[in-house]
Amino acid sequence: MNKKIAIIYTSFHHMNTERLIFSLDDVDIFNTTKLNNLNFSKYDYIGFASGIYYGEMSKNILDAARKIILKDSAKVFIVYTCGICLKNYSKSMEHILNSRNLDYIGEFSCRGYDNYGPFKIFGGISKKHPTQNDITNFKKFIYEIQNL
């Protein structure tokens, strides 16, 4: 049985998140800035992906998670990239998914190039991220959730 996967994403500045998710094959990808249809009921798996902005996932991706239409059996997951991993940046998204009683099956995160604020002085951090190793680990994550 072929399981359909969609990933809804927001990626600004250095396009770290976009680079990560566009490494996948056989996945339908939707940018929140071009999200016209909110009906995702044909998908078995829905991912919500974002860079981290001011310590949180994008407001656009959080709004999409509140509004989209999913089938009852859909499984949802979170993906994010961040300059430095100081905490779980997906708590707001987890709260939204849990409040909708969705089948939340996990998250993937990795570092991404960041030159915001004080990091600019040093030329940024995590300059080469996401790396090929990050992308390989992301693909493994997607494979594993498809086989739950």
From TrEMBL:
SUPFAM superfamilies from the UniProt entry: Flavoproteins
Highest taxon in the source lineage: Bacteria
Family matches, as InterPro entries: Flavoprotein-like_sf, Protoporphyrinogen_IX_DH
Signal peptide: none
Gene3D superfamilies on file: 3.40.50.360
GO molecular function: FMN binding; menaquinone-dependent protoporphyrinogen oxidase activity
Gene Ontology biological-process annotations: heme biosynthetic process
PANTHER family: PROTOPORPHYRINOGEN IX DEHYDROGENASE [MENAQUINONE], PROTOPORPHYRINOGEN IX DEHYDROGENASE [QUINONE]
Protein name: Flavodoxin
